[in-house]
Amino acid sequence: MFLNPTPDAQQSSGALSGEKTGLHREAWERVMRRLRAELGDDVFSSWFGRLELVDLAGDVAHLTVPTRFLKSWIQSHYIERVLALLTEEFSTVGRIDLAVRGTTSRMSARAGSKPQVDSTAPQRATSDRPPQTAAQELEARAVHDADPLSGAPLDRRLNFGNFLVGKTNALAHAAAERIAHAEPGASPLYNPLYVHSAVGLGKTHLLHAIAHSVAASGRRVLYLTADRFMYGFVSALKAQTALNFKERLRAIDLLVIDDVQFLQGKSIQQEFCHTLNALVDAGRQVVIAADRPPSDLETLDERVRSRLAGGLAVEMGPLDEALRVKILEARIAVAKIHQPGFDVSPTVISYVAKTVVSNGRDLDGAVNRLLAHTTLTGAPLNIEAAEVAIRDLVRNRDPKKVKIEDIQKLVATHFNVSRADILSSRRSAGVVKPRQIAMYLAKVLTLRSLPEIGRRFGGRDHTTVLHAVRKIEGAVIADVTLREDVELLKRMLQD
């Protein structure tokens, strides 16, 4: 979470450096871990995943986020909690300065000082160019960022040519290619296409590939993340240009939205639903990705979930061993272009594929570690060496992450009720007991806060969840049958 401060931050408030930097980084990471534990993974990833500490100056902690929408939301809802946690780690901190990354650079350019290129952008050599050229680039980037519908950048490396297909992603790949290669003007066959999977399994790669292919045919394409959509809508409301925002959004040929599970706010979800309906009804293609099926997106309005489920919903499952081997072979082939001496035997590849099973990003990490072992030590790369090189990926692999939706489904099945019953307001004994057990398991097996658990159980108050947890904690002591049921459910969820 901690990044080196930008050149602007160094000029304006002094950069953190040396041993002091390491201590500050560790303290900041503790703050972020506590926020994650208190708020839950979904809320944390949505609002704090890109929050960075860039400097400590006197009693001020300088934090940055990439968009004005995130800045506004954190200041309105969480700034006091962040300050409290910071104060526990840094006793001198009395207030927070939250800024949007890149703003300082543009202010410096306008003031006449030598401008600095945004550290998140591709690095370019600027030292031999007139200062006004760099300033013009910064202004152009500012205009792009200020445009609510400028879209998120597409990665040229993510295309169909290097997307590796296996049993678990074949259906999603086939549907994506059908959309990408459809004739201009043809009625969409799958609309919307909804792709869901856990992190690191390739859904974003697939979305970028679709966008590249459709754009290459001359059609209008817009790729947005959920937070970019939210920022665009809020910015349009503030600027009183909401009508223009809606008209521009509904005039495109392909709308691609990633991480829709992070879509927050009633008015924003309503606008998203209206846009979705307008595009689908007009025969324009919509492609959406999330980390769970539409029915499990409890934070989204029911009408949005219904519309998403009305298209083609496709899951990209965990990578099977054969696909992991293909991914490793492809990554190693790319690495050999730059390091011709990097040679990995099929035996080692097979070992890594059997050992690193979580996602594609960990496979990338495994290849990097094998490459480092070969280039830095010069020792032969056998099974024993590979085991040492990738042991952190195995040893530190997180245990199975239990989802509240999985708890609700399993408990409902075990007690012969429906998940809808558990989420409903029904007060019959046959429903209340399973609901309380599910709430108890959600508190014990996840990092979700009591308010978050309450929201996931039909919008209940946190005191209701606390009552359920305490009731089951007391009941399992006296009731042997209930204790055995709860322990069985725990094992089934964690296996």
Give structural notes.
This protein has 495 residues and is an alpha/beta fold. The chain folds into 4 domains: 7-101, DnaA, N-terminal domain (GMP Synthetase, Chain A, domain 3); 160-315, Rossmann fold, CATH 3.40.50; 321-395, Helicase, Ruva Protein, domain 3, CATH 1.10.8; 404-494, DnaA protein, C-terminal DNA-binding domain (Chromosomal Replication Initiator Protein Dnaa, Chain: A). It is 57% helix and 8% strand. A 5-stranded parallel sheet has the order 5-6-7-4-8, sandwiched between helices. Strands 1-2-3 form a 3-stranded mixed sheet, with helices on both faces. Helix 2 packs across helix 5, helix 19 packs antiparallel against helix 21 (429-445) and helix 22 (450-456) packs across helix 23 (462-478). The longest helix has 22 residues, at 18-39. It is globular and about 65 Å long. The two termini are 31 Å apart.
